[in-house]
Every structure is written in structure tokens, then in C-alpha cells.
């Protein structure tokens, strides 16, 4: 365990912060899961939560994330629970705005569909990029250019994976449940737009993170240059395979002797 990880785990303030967010999320989860509009859709929507939250809790001792990462995940999962409670295509944000301010966003923007799902896909990119980057830096030791590219690719690929899961669920369950979970609202390009918004959000987060590090980190440029240098000039593929076979033959020969 690294010293930074040990410090985070031993820091009472860090533990209280993480525990407080967990407690608040449980309250939100129970409140919005008590009587969702469509129970079957709520269960499907929360598969991610059923996996993510236990993983974060069980991994706290070994890999406690930063407060910033936990806060980002907390905000995203709370918004996700709002979508799961109503189904994403029926979140009544216009009714809320009408009640609070006397106007609705859809009329002001000329929208004909509910865009809450678009917002959450965009915020997936904005909010989840930093936690993913933190994991890459601390586990895979990604540095320089790769510390920014890999989180972007993870956000893009997970967004694509979600769209494939939605498609699969629509095919398997069919009917109203499948369509509610898919949430295309008649837009044949819905999946493409959702993935594009997640990518855009991640790009914004990546550029913001890079700008902060460029400003504060004196080694920023050096790390980028070093990360793009060739570390192993020998080709892999058949060359590496031949080398491994030779090493294996040499080991077998030495064992026979």
C-alpha cells in the first residue's frame, strides 16, 4: 500500500467525508426507489448502482479515492436515481421549472422530446472522467499523454457499452419495459447522440484537468514528452514469440541437465 493510500485510509476527515456521501446516497436511493413509476425499469436502471456502490465500499481500504472523485460519483449517481425513479424519458423537469419559475425549458428551447437522458450522458463524461483517471494513475501508473487518453477512451467505451446493453434489454424484454429502458423517444440516432455527448463531456473534463496540471505542475511538459518516447525499440509479435520460445527451450534444456 502506498503512503498516499495509507494516509487517505487513516485520515478521519476523509473517512467521514466518504461515509457521509454514502449515507446521503442511501437516503436518496431509498427515497427514489420506494415507489418508482415503473419498478421493472427501476431495477434495470440500477444494475450499474448494484455493482458500482458495493465495489467502492469494499475497495475503500485498498483504494480510497479522493474527495473530488467521490463527490463526482455521488452527484452522478444521484442524478441517475432521479432518472431511474421516473424513467429517463419521463423526468418532469419542465413541470418542476414551471412550478418554480413559471416557464419551462422545452418551450424556451423548442424541444419536442425529453432531454434528461442527454444531460446525464453528458455528465457521465464530465463527472466520471476524473475518477477513472485517478484509478489509471494509481493502478496502471499511466503518465503524461496516456493519463489523459485512457480515461477518455474508457468513458467512450462505457458509453457505447451502455447503449449496447439498452439495445440488448429492449430485444430480450421487449414491450413497454424494453422501450422504457431503451428510451429513444423515436430518435433513430439516439444512441449516437448519447455517446457523442458523453465523449464531449469527457473531452471538456480532460482539457480542464490538463489546463490545471499545466498551470501547477512544473513537470507537465517533460512528462508528456517522456510518455511519447519509445520505451522498447524491439518489435513484438513474431519477434517476441520467437524469443519466448527460445527462452522456454533453454529452460527445458537446463532442467534436463
Describe what this molecule looks like in 3D.
The protein is mainly α and 257 residues long. It has one domain (3-256). 77% of the residues lie in helices and 0% in strands. It is elongated.
Descriptors:
257 residues, mainly alpha, 13 helices, 77% helix, disordered N terminus
Number of DSSP strands?
0
What is the tally of helical segments? 13
Query: Which structural category fits the helices and strands?
Result: mainly alpha
Order of helices and strands: HHHHHHHHHHHHH
Tell me the helix content.
over 70%
Write the layout of secondary structure elements.
Elements: H1 3-10, H2 12-33, H3 39-45, H4 47-58, H5 67-86, H6 93-101, H7 105-109, H8 116-140, H9 146-173, H10 175-182, H11 190-216, H12 220-227, H13 238-256
Helix pairs in contact: 2-5, 3-5, 3-10, 5-8, 8-9, 8-11, 9-10, 9-11
Write a brief structural summary.
This protein is an all-alpha fold.
Amino acid at each position: 500500500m502506498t503512503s498516499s493510500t495509507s494516509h487517505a485510509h487513516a485520515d478521519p476527515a476523509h473517512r467521514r467525508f466518504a461515509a457521509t456521501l454514502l449515507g446521503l446516497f442511501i437516503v436518496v436511493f431509498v427515497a427514489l426507489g420506494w415507489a418508482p413509476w415503473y419498478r421493472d425499469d427501476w431495477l434495470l436502471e440500477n444494475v450499474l448502482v448494484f455493482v458500482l456502490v458495493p465495489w467502492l465500499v469494499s475497495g475503500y481500504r485498498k483504494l480510497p479515492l479522493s474527495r473530488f472523485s467521490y463527490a463526482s460519483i455521488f452527484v452522478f449517481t444521484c442524478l441517475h436515481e432521479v432518472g431511474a425513479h421516473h424513467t429517463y424519458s419521463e423526468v418532469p423537469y419542465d413541470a418542476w421549472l414551471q412550478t418554480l419559475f413559471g416557464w419551462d425549458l422545452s418551450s424556451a428551447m423548442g424541444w419536442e422530446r425529453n432531454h434528461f437522458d442527454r444531460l446525464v450522458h453528458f455528465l457521465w463524461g464530465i463527472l466520471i472522467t476524473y475518477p477513472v483517471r485517478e484509478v489509471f494513475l494509481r493502478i496502471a501508473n499511466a503518465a503524461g499523454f496516456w493519463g489523459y487518453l485512457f480515461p477518455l477512451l474508457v468513458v467512450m467505451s462505457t458509453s457505447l457499452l451502455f447503449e449496447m446493453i439498452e439495445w440488448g434489454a429492449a430485444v430480450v424484454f421487449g414491450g413497454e419495459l424494453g422501450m422504457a429502458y431503451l428510451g429513444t423517444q423515436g430518435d433513430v440516432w439516439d444512441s449516437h447522440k448519447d455517446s457523442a455527448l458523453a465523449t464531449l463531456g469527457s473531452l471538456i473534463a480532460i482539457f480542464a484537468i490538463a489546463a490545471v496540471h499545466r498551470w501547477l505542475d512544473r513537470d507537465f511538459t517533460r512528462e508528456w514528452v517522456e510518455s511519447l518516447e519509445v520505451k522498447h525499440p524491439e518489435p513484438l509479435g513474431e519477434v517476441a514469440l520467437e524469443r519466448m520460445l527460445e527462452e522456454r527451450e533453454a529452460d527445458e534444456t537446463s532442467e534436463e541437465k
